[in-house]
């Protein structure tokens, strides 16, 4: 059997694998991209793009059905099948762009390398060979270097069998035939809260959300968790705080869900669909890790170093990027790592891999964005900080939009240096606002560095400007006049550490 040879072989075409492959052709390399399922991985299908398409559509619907804006739409109705069709059009559009680029670079040119896409399951035979197995055939592929970018899948819930019809996870959303009348979402992290937002926006489904703790998105500070909880409830979501799932009994026409609360009482509810969203686990089974001597961490991820190598850089030809790496499971992290590996291999590394400025966008109602440290993280690390909060209800643009629900919260170090440590933004355009502070975190910026920036009017970003002014007691609107809307406080550990 003849073996095709490549400079770089990438397992998985999600954000991590695709970005690595595309960066490698910039360096004139021959690349083989192996994909077992959907081109684009969870970055496109059953993941980031499809869920965001669904969120956007649900938000439009929710705005159209509102009655507080001087208009009242009549005859408004929504059809799940049509919604699904629109989402699939979005996914298809993106996949066709990816395919078009792959086809454009099928042959090498003087300046660029070339890329070959193979559909099939990739598995290491040895450290320079993988087997690619599809329904039609099995072939061997040789590579000088490899990147494992096989992503993640939903974490199974003990004793809950996913049938992807009535008991689904995020991979089964597209299998639903219509809006369920009643639904429970198990897990109140980002995916759980995003789908609770989406289904409650459509107002066709009675949405229950199981939250094992007191607050949803438990890793965030209490003010943000409470804000998200309150808004979900205002949108009609029934949140079962401090509840654990005992079991789901499948009846012919409904599911019987038994919940046990921390205070000892239990509740039985009836729903039509249960959606499990309790985290994601890496796809590392049956890819031949044992044939290349790579071990997994206690948490099941790949043990990678500062350049995403699975061993000492000079001795290593197997790298890992994206959700398998054990870093935050975000599209941008996968892209960053994938591109970084290629630059480490074929280019000159100009800066170390930096995760401190990675923003997380959460598509709730309203949207929420996070970058850098929050109060919980500062306190855990013993970092003294000051924190200012500024409500959107004082920001003219938000007032004009009639969308005053939200706030800006910025944290700076309280060590005389005033270094920007983190920001949380909730409200319209939060996803755009976060990048200015993310940039300051990358640049190790201080309050002094950014206070000269003048923000245009009327913009939501004026809230960031005012929030920064609060630290120096120079804001136009004052905490004394609006104690509930503008806040400044500080925290110091007993033993102070450097930020
Ligand atoms: C519902 C949902 C919403 C999300 N929303 C966001 C968001 O708004 N913003 C954000 O930043 N992140 C979001 N994420 C997370 C984001 O999608 C992931 O972090 C990202 O897709 C991970 O990229 P990756 O390349 O590591 O893996 P993946 O995207 O999972 O891609 C891995 C690919 O590898 C393939 N593969 C697996 N094993 C093999 C094998 N042996 N051989 C060949 N191919 C293989 C898989 O089929 C898959 O296509 C969301 C995730 C979900 C599930
Ligand atoms: N907008 C975005 O950036 C975005 C959107 C969706 C997903 N993602 C990524 O996908 C990853 C997975 O999302 P997720 O929401 O599934 O995970 P998550 O880690 O954000 O949240 C999981 C939730 O499930 C709860 N949980 C865990 N085990 C449970 C159990 N047995 N019973 C009840 N609750 C349980 C946890 O307490 C937590 O609240 C995230 O870490 C995130 O990085 C990102």
UniProtKB/TrEMBL annotation:
GO terms for cellular component: oxoglutarate dehydrogenase complex. One of its GO terms (biological process) is 2-oxoglutarate metabolic process. The keyword NAD applies. Its cofactor is FAD. Residues 6-338 form the FAD/NAD(P)-binding domain. InterPro entries: Class-I_Pyr_Nuc-Dis_Oxidored, FAD/NAD-bd_sf, FAD/NAD-binding_dom, FAD/NAD-linked_Rdtase_dimer_sf, Pyr_nuc-diS_OxRdtase, Pyr_nucl-diS_OxRdtase_dimer. NAD(+) binds at residues 187-194, 279. Binds 1 FAD per subunit. FAD binds at residues 52, 122, 150-152, 323. One of its GO terms (molecular function) is flavin adenine dinucleotide binding. The active site is at 457 (proton acceptor). Pfam families: Pyr_redox_2, Pyr_redox_dim. This is NAD(P)/FAD-dependent oxidoreductase. Keywords: FAD, Flavoprotein, NAD, Nucleotide-binding, Oxidoreductase. Transmembrane segments: none annotated. Belongs to the class-I pyridine nucleotide-disulfide oxidoreductase family. Residues 359-466 form the Pyridine nucleotide-disulphide oxidoreductase dimerisation domain.
């Amino acid at each position: 059997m003849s073996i095709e040879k490549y400079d770089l072989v990438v397992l998985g075409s999600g954000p991590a694998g695709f970005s690595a492959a595309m960066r490698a052709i910039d360096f004139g390399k021959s690349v083989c991209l192996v994909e077992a399922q959907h081109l684009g991985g969870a970055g496109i299908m059953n993941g980031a793009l499809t869920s965001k398409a669904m969120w956007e559509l649900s938000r439009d619907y929710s705005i159209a059905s509102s009655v507080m804006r001087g208009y009242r739409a009549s005859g408004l109705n929504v059809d799940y099948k049509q919604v699904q069709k629109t989402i699939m059009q979005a996914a298809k559009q993106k996949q066709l762009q990816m395919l078009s680029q792959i086809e454009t670079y099928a042959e090498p040119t003087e300046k660029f390398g070339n890329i070959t896409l193979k559909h099939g399951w990739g598995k290491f035979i040895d450290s320079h060979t993988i087997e690619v197995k599809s329904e039609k055939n099995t072939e061997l592929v040789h590579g000088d270097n490899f990147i494992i970018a096989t992503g993640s899948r939903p974490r199974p819930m003990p004793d809950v069998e996913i049938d992807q019809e009535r008991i689904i996870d995020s991979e089964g959303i597209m299998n639903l035939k219509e809006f369920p009348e009643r639904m429970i979402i198990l897990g109140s992290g980002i995916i759980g809260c995003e789908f609770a937002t989406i289904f409650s926006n459509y107002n066709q489904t009675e949405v229950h959300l199981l939250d094992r703790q007191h607050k949803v998105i438990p890793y965030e500070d209490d003010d943000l968790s409470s804000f998200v909880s309150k808004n979900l409830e205002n949108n009609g979501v029934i949140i079962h705080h401090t509840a654990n799932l005992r079991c789901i009994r499948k009846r012919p026409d409904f599911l019987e869900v038994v919940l046990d609360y921390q205070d000892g009482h239990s509740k039985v509810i009836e729903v039509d669909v249960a959606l499990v969203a309790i985290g994601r686990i890496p796809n590392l089974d049956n890819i031949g890790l044992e044939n290349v001597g790579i071990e997994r961490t206690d948490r099941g991820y790949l043990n990678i170093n500062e350049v995403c190598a699975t061993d000492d850089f000079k001795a290593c030809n197997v790298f890992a990027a994206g959700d398998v790496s054990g870093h935050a499971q975000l599209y941008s992290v996968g892209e960053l790592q994938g591109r970084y590996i290629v630059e480490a291999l074929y280019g000159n590394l100009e800066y170390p891999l930096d995760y401190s400025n990675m923003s997380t966008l959460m598509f709730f109602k309203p949207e929420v964005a996070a970058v850098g440290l929050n109060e919980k993280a500062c306190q855990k690390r013993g970092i003294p900080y000051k924190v200012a909060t500024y409500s959107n209800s004082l920001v003219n643009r938000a007032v004009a939009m009639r969308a005053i629900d939200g706030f800006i919260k910025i944290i700076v170090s309280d060590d005389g240096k005033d270094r920007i440590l983190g920001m949380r933004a909730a409200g319209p355009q939060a996803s755009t606002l976060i990048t200015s502070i993310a940039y300051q975190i990358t640049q190790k910026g201080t309050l002094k560095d950014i206070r000269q920036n003048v923000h245009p009017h009327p913009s939501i970003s004026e809230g960031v400007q005012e929030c920064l002014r609060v630290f120096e007691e120079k804001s136009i609107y004052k905490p004394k006049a609006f104690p509930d809307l503008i806040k400044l406080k500080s925290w110091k550990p007993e033993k102070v550490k450097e930020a």
